[in-house]
Automatic annotation (TrEMBL):
Protein name, entry field: Chloride channel protein
Entries under CDD domains matching the protein: CBS_pair_voltage-gated_CLC_euk_bac, ClC_3_like
Keyword hit for NAD: no
Organism: Oreochromis aureus
Domain CBS: 609-673, 706-764
Keywords: Antiport, ATP-binding, CBS domain, Chloride, Endosome, Ion transport, Membrane, Nucleotide-binding, Repeat, Transmembrane, Transmembrane helix, Transport
Subcellular location: Endosome membrane; Membrane
Encoding gene, per UniProt annotation: CLCN4
A GO cellular-component term linked to this record: endosome membrane
Amino acid sequence: MEAAEGVSAATPTEEMNGAGNLMDFLDEPFPDVSTYEDFHTIDWLREKSRDTDRHRKITSKSKESLWELIKSLLDAWSGWVVMLLIGLLSGTLAGVIDLAVDWMTDLKEGVCLSAFWYSHEQCCWTSNETTFDDRDKCPQWQKWAELMTGHAEGAGAYVLNYFLYILWALLFSFLAVSLVRVFAPYACGSGIPEIKTILSGFIIRGYLGKWTLLIKTVTLVLAVSSGLSLGKEGPLVHVACCCGNLFCSLFSKYSKNEGKRREVLSAAAAAGVSVAFGAPIGGVLFSLEEVSYYFPLKTLWRSFFAALVAAFTLRSINPFGNSRLVLFYVEYHTPWYMAELVPFILLGVFGGLWGTLFIRANIAWCRRRKTTQLGKYPVLEVIAVTGITALLAYPNPYTRRSTSELISELFNDCGALESSQLCDYVNNPNMSRPVDDIPDRPAGPGVYNALWQLTLALIFKIVITIFTFGMKIPSGLFIPSMAVGAIAGRIVGIAVEQMAYHHHDWIIFKNWCRPGADCVTPGLYAMVGAAACLGGVTRMTVSLVVIMFELTGGLEYIVPLMAAAVTSKWVADAFGKEGIYESHILLNGYPYLDVRDEFTHRTLATDVMRPRRNDPPLAVLTQDSTTVEDVETLIKDTDYNGFPVVVSRESERLIGFVQRRDLTLAIKNARQKQDGVVSSSVVYFTEDAPQLPASNPQPLKLRRILNLSPFTVTDHTPMETVVDIFRKLGLRQCLVTRSGRLLGIITKKDVLRHMAQMMNQDPESIMFN
């Protein structure tokens, strides 16, 4: 009895000395407690409650002294400071990328003698010998053949220019793929599928790191300049998110909380689209509609601010020299008419069909790359595709130039001063109208010639983009998709324009198109086609329309754009719900629970939970009878993320849940910092220490790391509800109980597997935890 009393008397002091030390130690947050392993999912609820605790602590401390008050104000402002920094850096990088791409694209064809760092356009701006009609020709700019042989024209000069064009393209793409391969393997591709996955709570270490940022910026310039059928818009979102991650590490509020970090990354994605298209509001909507998983109102305002700063920075750099944020700014002078909705909707149908064709073909090709020998030779693949692209692109003037310039020309309306082939109409000699409002005219030989070249360019772009997207270089999809749509739209626009001119007495044209009037704007059709194709591939709607009218300044044309975007989404959705980014997420097996997927099957939690019938029993810890050695053995023998804690193995009543990583670190620290903790020490999760014989070594209290309110459902909860809970609360796992007794566990991976099985897909395609 005395001995027992002695023990019980000693217990509180032991607890004070031993476990107390550990608790003090855990109070100063140990660097790795509550952080996550690579390729694991974060626990949103836990991150949110940790941030609330942190906030409460700062608020209570701020009343103590002036210094603490200043610290709390700095903490409150840190979010806006991060947004400002992201906007400034991503705007600067986008401006530098635009200028470098401009120069290097022109470098494939020639060089500026007065200053080699000038692009073709800048070179001829500074020249005094340039005339308005021949604004592309000036003595300072020489093609390579003219520089080397002295002859500008002739077959020999053409062949030499052709050869050097291919050589430069191969050099650029080889440099790009080599840099990605050696320094930052994560810098390849568009980056949007991975960013969607990261924003949904998955951890991919290094994906948003400093090396990735540096290499992605450099290789993006090289890849776009090589003339491959890819854009810089998607990768710019990745670059902006890398900037966001970089600045998060400066503030502990964001660096130590994965949930808060994702709020910053959502805003960074908005800044990325803002500088990619010069569309700040479109960027915010893109982040909200397309990439973000959790988007509170506070993030909306901050995204808006980051997008504003980024757009302002890009405008200060003025990379296009036209005082606009974008290359494609257009001004149309004629309104559109109701009858034109028919061709606009047809362009929407084309966009939906192209989107479906592209997604299926590209995913089939990427799957082939993953599963065959092809994937082992990324450098060879890039060189081969670049060689074929350059070989086929050079002869056609529409594919030789950069895709952005091509889209810009297709969007343009034919003014009186246009020198493009597309504007070679037969002029009426006695035309005396203001310059702005040129009536519809019959097409001249130049237009028919351009139509042939555009048709070939369309086929070429459709085929080559399928093989380009997904290679081991930075590659965006927005610009190639827009190019396909713009070419198709311009062809349709010219066809409608000529029909209206030659058959103005037809009933469809009679009401709105009189002879001698300017009825049809082919450039508008190109714009609508571009929106339709981009919508068909990405399945964006609201953000797409806003991006398009911010991009072109065509505010009057919202209705045609909306009609085309909605039609393309309907048509594409009829063949499959996933856009290109969701398809790549599925292909890579990322654990992404799409909010838009509907789960309509009538299964219950008990059908999905583990352990199943023939499985070994669930690995659990008891509240006060497990030893340190038992815990260490359990951690060594299993790879679970955490363990439920029960009263005892007989009763199986649930007490809480403890994370594997916290358990490992707590035991490791206790062994280092606390005397008397040995393998046979009892681990307890209760408030009071268990009654133990005096001879027992000192027990170890780990209540601090126990989650006392784990999320639980009963075994008869419909899976529809469980899936909804996982989506909306961002859970990692959920325990299944009946009348307080633990029955099993459902993890996010189990939910994804079950959904894949229900959709008759391979459940093992979900690779990561």
